[in-house]
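Sample A.
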Amino acid sequence: LVVDWLAKFWPLRTVGPTIPSKYLDERLEDDKEYGVNLFKSDNDACIKWLNERPKGSVAYVSFGSAAKLDDEQMEELAWGLRRSKSNFLWVVRASEAAKVPKGFIEETSEKGLVVSWCSQMEVLVHEAVGCFVTHCGWNSTLEALSLGVPMLAMPQWTDQRTNAKFIMDVWKIGITAPSDEKGKVRQEVVEHCISEIMEGERGKEMKINALKWKKLARKAVDEGGSSDKNIDEFISKLVQ
């Protein structure tokens, strides 16, 4: 609807999803990343660890490059991951590491891996990943949508609450974690929501919907798709 409205005022063509070709249509083998790495990645360790986990058994947890959780929310998330039956891969930036509860990493070493950064798309396409616990930044949302990964939404600010609304109510590929009167998502909620996505009946529907959106995303950027056609039309207008 927004696109249709804007098209009344300006010539408009939509393109995307704009994620590296390697992970979607595979038409450009060398198109593997955005070209900017804000942090040093522990990617080799992540992929090695994921390779040793069963298909769909891992909850991947990341709040991006800027979002921050306060100490109380960090603790609730940590203990929720411990209570969960699922394995987890948790990205905790170096600037946030001091907020991880004391002893947590050692207590959960058999089921979890905590790293400072990783290649998110490499992780999301891995068959071991069954759920993405996310702050719902647009890049993370678009990547998970395009790669067919159900999400547990924990939005923090700006557009993230709108993105979470689409994840749960429009695309139907995830759950928005409810918060209490203090605005905190408690550990039992984290545990329940991950279980619902990974093992519950609603989770089965989310996975079906996620695969549907993945196919639509690939179709859009593939040869002859809507994005492909719109780029050609845009270029043809420029060279006339």
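Sample B, a different protein:
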Amino acid sequence: MFSKIKPKDTILGTIALILVALVMHFIPILGVIVIFFAPLPGIILWYRSKYSFGIAALVSIMVATITGSLFVQTFMIILLLASLIISQLLLIKASKERILYVVSFVTSLVTLGVMIFLQSIKKLPYAHELIEPYKIVVDETIRMQNLDAQSAKILEASVQQMAVQMPSFIVISITLFFMLSLLIMFPILRQFKVATPVYRPLYLWQLRKSIFIIYAIALLVSIVTEPSTTANSISQNFIIVLGFLLVIQGLSFIHYACSIKKFPIGVSVLLIIIGIIAYPLTRLIGLLDLGLNLKSMLKKR
């Protein structure tokens, strides 16, 4: 065991992870920049020695615990989990889009799960409590402007919708973060002799069919269970996370159709933009593509 530990890598990786934890605690503004590079130490350590990664992870979590910040502790745990996933997928030579799918899916579920847990033990406010200041402003606007009942109802509905869609915002933010972070980190990882893939064209992106089955099960559970129950909350989180992945699958189909029909690049870009705006329809297209293999049907035609 000890022969598999790389002392130099362990020390440097541990110091880097400790610095990440301290920056996130003491200089959160700088942390906005550091966060895009934060997975690097963990990725390199797991790629070279899993034992070294374990030691560095243990020490860094201990330091995060000493800070007394629940946010820093949670951040470090999710960071280390993301680093492990990315590095393991690099070891098995997974495609870049698969790495993006998997790390976004897992970290989104863990993040939402942690949020539910912290809310249940009163360590984190619920969504409606977070938007309470905005609701107060809206109510004040309604009172001052003397709006009619219909306008007031629309504004109040927008506030409720914001609370409902907060998990979706979190999932989208995490996915966009990893999309940008992978673009930044992979060239750096190559300097450390870590083999990294490149993004394939969007029309070649393809989710596994198991996503279709999991999404269908989550939908079924959400229908047969009562709202606000644990099972319903878990199924809703799965629906949100998988739904976003299905949007990407739908965009992949749109790009594939444009390629097959040999549309000009400008038209392809326009259709993809429309697909992003009309994401509920794009999500349905992605679901149908997974279930019925629309790409294959289109190619045969």
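Observation for Sample B: The two ends are 57 Å apart (CA to CA).
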